[in-house]
Every structure is written in C-alpha cells, then in structure tokens.
Amino acid sequence: MGFKLIVFDWDGTLMDSEARIVASIRAAFADMGKQPPSREAARDVIGFSLTDAMARLWPGADDTQRSRVAERYRFYNHGADETPSILFPGARELVDWLLQRDYLLAVATGKSRRGLDPILGDTGLADRFHATRCADEACSKPHPEMLLQIMDELGVTGAETLMVGDTEYDMQMARNAGTCALAVCYGVHERERLLAQRPLDCLETLPELRSWFERLEAV
After folding, report:
1. pLDDT band at residue 82, thresholds of 50, 70 and 90?
2. By mean pLDDT, which of 30-34, 36-40, 84-88, 183-187 is the weakest?
3. 162 lies in the same domain as 75
4. Domain containing residue 99
5. Beta carbons of 190 and 170 less than 8 angstroms apart
6. Strands, E assignment, the chain
7. Quick one: which of 78, 94, 117, 166 is 20 to 30 A from 111 by CA?
8. CB 169 within 8 A of CB 9
C-alpha cells in the first residue's frame, strides 16, 4: 500500500461540527414552518451535498421550497448559529506530521466552497492541503467525481490514494473511485455501519490515525 495521497473528509473527520450542522438543519426547517427532522435523521445526511441532504429530509418539497430551506440552513450554519464547531484534538498535528512525510493531502467534503474556505482560513489549515473539492463543484458523495478530480489534478492513481472518512458515503465514494478507504468511528456513523463497507481499518480516535500510518510505514 504505497499511498502518496491522503484525502480527508472534513465534517466528522477533521472537524467536530456535527452539533452545529444538526442544529442548523433543524432551525432551517422550523423557519419553513415544517416539523424539524429528528436529530438522528439530520445526522444521517451529514456528508451529502446540501441539495441532496435537503431532498432526503424533505422528499415532497418543490424546487422553491428546497432552495429556501437550503438558504435558511446557510444562514444558521455560516454564522447565526453559535454552536461550537472546532477541529478534533490532534487534527492539526496529524496534518502537519503527514506533510513532513511528504504525503499529498486533500479534502473531499459535502460542504460548499462558500462553507469550506472560511473554515480553512479560520483554522489556519488552508495552506496544508494540495487540493480540495466541495459538493457544489462535483457530484455529491458517494459518487466518485470529487476523488477522481483530485487524483487527476495531483497526478496520482487510485492505488496511490487513501480516503479517510467517518461515513459510509466516504467509504462508498472511495470504492467507486477505485481507491482504498480508512474509516474513523468518532464521527457520524457507528462502527458496524462503517465496517459493512469493508474499509482497511476502523479507528476509534483521531490520534490512532498517526499510529496507523506509523505501522504502515514500518511494513
């Protein structure tokens, strides 16, 4: 497994943003006069593009209603909601450690570009990633387009690429793109659900990622 490129999901993998996303979804539906989805239902669409997420949560909505509820979600998630959204402990250190070992690093996220760029700037990680793709620039997970675009941009093959994520959609995207996947179960989807997608491994904490790569290098 001679990986050259490590592609991270963002929400639930590098950033602890679940609570803010769920709160923003529920507030958006309340603004529309709709019964907010359960917390479990809102959690389950994390990782999809906003368009796909809202379609799954409100399947009977017309285009105008979906556009409006998405607009209200952005209102809350991009500032109005004050639920903390922070990097998981050790995320910055892991990214820097991987860079020191000459890995190419990328992000493939269900966020929009408007959502990702300010966060990369606020966290100081904007210059750490060689490529990023958002769900408004390519097909939503589990479609492989984001990964395929990143690999093409960086000149890396599927065999040289590893996708790291916390949802089954990340695992499915990796398989669809012909890459390996590594699951983390401290995010959105539980261990059993992730293992059903047959990742290389399923890690309980972010610090275990560094140990995993150290073992990989020792082989």
Report:
1. confident
2. 84-88
3. no
4. 5-16+86-218
5. no
6. 5-8, 15-16, 86-87, 104-108, 131-133, 161-165, 180-184, 202-203
7. 94
8. no
Q: What pTM was computed for the model?
A: 0.92
**pLDDT one-digit tens code per residue, 156-191:** 999 999 999 999 999 999 999 999 999 999 999 999
Looking at the structure, tell me whether residues 192 and 213 fall in a common domain: yes
One domain, residues 92 and 156: yes
Q: Residues 168, 193: contact at Cβ < 8 Å?
A: yes
Distance separating alpha carbons of residues 1 and 24, to the nearest angstrom: 39
| Pairing state between β 15-16 and 5-8 | unpaired
pLDDT at 83: 83
Q: Residue 1: its pLDDT value, please?
A: 67
**CATH number of residue 48's parent domain:** 1.10.150
CATH code assigned at 183: 3.40.50.1000
- Tell me, what DSSP letter sits at residue 77? I
Regarding whether 202 and 97 lie in a shared domain, the answer is: yes
Provide the pLDDT for residue 67.
92
* Annotation says 9 is catalytic: yes
- For residues 73 and 54, what is the distance between their CA atoms, to the nearest angstrom? 10
Please tell me which residue in 9, 44, 166, 170 is annotated as part of the active site: 9
**Residue 23 and residue 11 share a domain:** no
